């Protein structure tokens, strides 16, 4: 599985800690982490939490990644922005219990985490424990297990609902503020990481046309 990492500008200084924790866990399960930034507070391309959501939508809907790990000060802004995108089901994960329940009940494809609120001593251990609960077990098995079938049905209902309430990703790319879109994909490693992994040629062509 390819996991995309996206960090909002206010928390960019913590990028090395977050990336190390994620890679330590994800790579132990055979997954690959693609870091789309931010990398440092001095990056020329600064990502806001709305951009986190837009970039998550691009990465997941193109097939460039299978899962997104993102966050901001509280995690809430990034979660809301992600859930505004078609095909993105993002949970707010603060502790390992959140991670386990989101994985087992909701089986989403993105998580948003708080990288300021509560981010104190041994924060990296909490990150590793959360990531482990996301990636160590098959998603959607249900909790409690006897409710697995009901939970699967509800996930399907939600997915169908989202198809009605959200535009498709190409429509979003064409109609969203183009300066916002350009800023969301302006990261120094976006082209290097995105185009070789994307499975959507239409999306590739449109993003390349932005110059």
Radius of gyration: 16 Å
Strand content: 5-15%
The biggest beta sheet is recorded as: 5 strands, parallel
Number of continuous helical runs: 10
C-alpha end-to-end distance:
30 Å
Strand order of the main beta sheet, please? 2-1-3-5-4
Q: For the residues shown, what is the average pLDDT?
A: 98
Spans where pLDDT lies below 50 across 5 or more residues: none
Let me know the number of strands.
Answer: 5
Shape designation: globular
Helicity level, as a percent range? Answer: 40-55%
Sketch the topology as an H/E string, one letter per element: EHEHEHEHEHHHHHH
Q: Could you say which structural class the secondary elements and strand pairing correspond to?
A: alpha/beta
Describe this entry's structure for a reader.
The structure is a single chain. By secondary structure, this protein is an alpha/beta fold. It is 49% helix and 10% strand. The chain contains ten helices and five strands; from the N terminus they run βαβαβαβαβαααααα. It has helices spanning 15-26, 49-62, 76-83, 96-106, 123-135, 148-165, 169-175, 178-184, 190-194, 201-209, and strands spanning 2-5, 32-35, 67-72, 90-92, 110-114. It has a five-stranded parallel β-sheet, sandwiched between helices. β1, α1 and β2 form a beta-alpha-beta unit. α2 (49-62) crosses α8 (178-184). The longest helix has 18 residues, at 148-165. The protein is globular. The mean pLDDT is 98.
């Amino acid at each position: 599985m390819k996991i995309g990492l996206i960090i909002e500008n206010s928390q960019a200084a913590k990028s090395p800690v977050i990336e190390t924790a994620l890679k330590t866990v994800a790579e132990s399960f055979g997954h690959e982490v693609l870091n789309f930034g931010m990398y440092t507070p001095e990056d020329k391309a600064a990502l806001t939490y709305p951009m986190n959501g837009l970039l998550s939508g691009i990465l997941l809907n193109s097939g460039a990644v299978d899962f997104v790990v993102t966050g901001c000060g509280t995690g809430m802004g990034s979660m809301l922005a992600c859930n505004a995108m078609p095909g993105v089901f993002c949970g707010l994960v603060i502790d390992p219990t959140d991670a386990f329940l989101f994985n087992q009940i909701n089986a989403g494809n993105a998580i948003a985490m708080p990288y300021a609120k509560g981010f104190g001593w041994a924060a990296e251990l909490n990150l590793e424990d959360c990531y482990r609960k996301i990636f160590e077990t098959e998603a959607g098995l249900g909790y409690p297990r006897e409710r697995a079938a009901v939970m699967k049905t509800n996930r399907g209902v939600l997915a169908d609902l989202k198809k009605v309430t959200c535009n498709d990703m190409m429509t979003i790319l064409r109609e969203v503020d183009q300066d916002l879109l350009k800023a969301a994909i302006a990261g120094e490693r976006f082209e290097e990481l995105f185009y070789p992994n994307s499975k959507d040629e239409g999306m590739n062509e449109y993003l390349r046309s932005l110059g």
